[in-house]
């Protein structure tokens, strides 16, 4: 019985582009819906969302029901236990916030991979299909199926991007909102200084064969990001665009 394949890893290895959306509320049906819609992965937001371990467990199941890859965004970049817990519950990838240094990136690798590659403790649940996958097969394949992502969202991270990229994570994601705040232009995610920093991250990622991620606010910015060479494109959080679409409808009805 093989381990569940990671479609996102397959697409990235082939040089393709992946698309995601995030969820903050503890509703598995939303993850399922996003999978049916065609998103390659769903980001379960453990930094800003209502997510404890029990919630992650349910949201991962929702992702699998919809045929999409579950990725958990953990609260901090220095908690290996949170990375291990997410993976043991079946997440196929982990995103750390506020990656400022190469050491931050290396800590993610250490937490996500088993020895000798990392230091992850052994205790998989859903990841091994609750023991259905033989232990030897699990160890032979699991590390190659885990997606590692990091948010670069401060000036310090941009300044250290060369060394961060050398660590070899799968995706380095430009966090334009926090980056704008750190650059002194809060809320101005399209400010020239923000876009210059994003371009720097993209350029270094391309040289080191690391996929670079970008948050798209609409279809036009998603097209632009793909044309620029970003290979992981996120489309907001599902709850936000449900609200936006709902308001557009009600406003058109005079409400």
How does this model look, in words?
With 255 residues, the protein is an alpha/beta fold. It has one domain (7-252): TIM Barrel (Alpha-Beta Barrel), CATH 3.20.20. It has 12 helices and 8 strands. Strands 1-2-3-4-5-6-7-8 form an 8-stranded parallel β-barrel, surrounded by 8 helices. α11 links the parallel β7 (211-216) and β8 (232-237). α2 packs parallel to α3, α4 runs parallel beside α5 and α5 (102-112) runs parallel beside α8 (161-167). The N and C termini lie far apart (54 Å).
Integer count of domains: 1
Q: What string gives the helices and strands in order?
A: HEHEHEHEHHEHHEHHEHEH
Name of the CATH first level: Alpha Beta
Helix content: 40-55%
Largest sheet: 8 strands, parallel, barrel
Discrete helix count? 12
What is the number of beta strands?
8
Residue ranges: pLDDT <50 for 5 or more in a row?
Answer: none
